[in-house]
């Protein structure tokens, strides 16, 4: 199938405190700057994937997994998502460390998602830990993990991944 830049791409995200949303919006902006029409929205706002030539979906990693609403997107739209190119990304503050074990754990956060869909591209990005506005439970988890507040997002890595997506997604045959 031949793809054109007039095709729409969906960037859908789950975000608990805004960091993953900010990453999704940068991804959407980078793809749009390449000339594609892009819609960026929370996974809970997605009503259908049929209008899109490709989908990019992302979630923060909490307790070693994607947020339930992000996995639910894959469950609800698994047929449509498997009929078009799909890229997924996970965001975790622990990924500020360039460590193979941490990256392996971050990849494992998408295991439940893989039961429903097959992504042609996966991105792993460090996140941000800002205690302002966080729930008491999430703050305790971060403290138990020994995390200090900070923003570890690598915007260059996010932008480079986003700019590469159309060439990766639109040159692959998606199994129908």
From TrEMBL:
- Write down the superkingdom of origin: Archaea
Q: Name one Pfam family in it.
A: Flavodoxin_5
Q: Where is the Flavodoxin-like domain?
A: 9-166
By its UniProt entry, which SUPFAM superfamilies does this protein fall under? Answer: Flavoproteins
Spans traversing the lipid bilayer: none
Q: A GO molecular-function term, please?
A: menaquinone-dependent protoporphyrinogen oxidase activity
GO biological process annotation, one example: heme biosynthetic process
The entry's protein name is Flavodoxin
**What are the leading ranks of the lineage?**
Archaea, Methanobacteriati, Methanobacteriota, Stenosarchaea group, Methanomicrobia
């Amino acid at each position: 199938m031949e793809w054109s830049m007039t095709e729409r791409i969906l960037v859908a995200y789950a975000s608990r405190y805004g960091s993953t949303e900010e990453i999704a919006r940068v991804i959407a902006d980078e793809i749009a700057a390449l000339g594609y029409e892009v819609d960026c929205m929370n996974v809970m706002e997605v009503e259908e994937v049929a209008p899109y030539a490709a989908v990019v979906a992302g979630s923060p990693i909490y307790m070693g997994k994607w947020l339930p609403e992000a996995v639910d997107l894959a469950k609800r739209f698994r047929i449509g998502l498997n009929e078009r190119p799909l890229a997924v990304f996970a965001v975790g503050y622990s990924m500020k460390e360039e460590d193979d074990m941490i990256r392996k754990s971050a990849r494992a956060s998408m295991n439940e998602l893989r039961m429903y869909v097959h992504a042609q591209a996966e991105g792993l990005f460090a996140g941000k830990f800002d205690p302002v506005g966080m729930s008491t439970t999430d703050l305790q988890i971060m403290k138990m993990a020994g995390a200090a507040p900070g923003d570890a997002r690598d915007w260059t890595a996010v932008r480079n991944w986003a700019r590469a997506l159309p060439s990766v997604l639109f040159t692959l045959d998606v199994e129908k």
